[in-house]
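Need tokens for this chain, all 191 residues.
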Amino acid sequence: MNSDVEIAGDLLAIQHLLPPTPEHPSTVAGFAGLAREIAADRAGWAALVRYDPVTRWYHRLRTGPGYEVWLLSWLPGQGTGPHDHGDSSSVLTVLAGELTERSAAGERRLTPGGERLVTPGRPHEISNNTLDPAVSLHVYFPGLTRMPMHPTTDHTTQHTAHSTTHRAPARATAPLPAPAAPLMTPSPTAD
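Here are the structure tokens for all 191 residues:
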């Protein structure tokens, strides 16, 4: 016997020796993996995307124990304003288009396939500064319950927080437009 395979046999043939695959992620790496898995399944999210000329559009894709997954669309010029995610961490993945993140660390272009981890209480601002629509995926853990807004500063580097409560808006049901021709009817937004 010269190898572990000869001793134990083919590990893929004996599934009972492998640790169980968790149904839901529980680590940062697991949440990043969940974001990549959902992003790769374009057929599972592309038909859901809507565009709202007034504000960013939101759709909750999934929830699980201690997390939630949101799909957002951004028309040119739309953005968040400076904010943080309260006690939640998040993994942000751009699915289509390009977004810009501003924070104390500076300005960063976010393009499809890239991931950003945002830690609790870390102020940042996301915007679509291009001429094309963008779509992003956000995994919040624990689920997002607060989104404190911060006053705007020249470099989004120093903030005095005041809290607001983030509530999920109602789901939009209009068909998905082609990115070159965004839907021009507003979807419901949070109060």
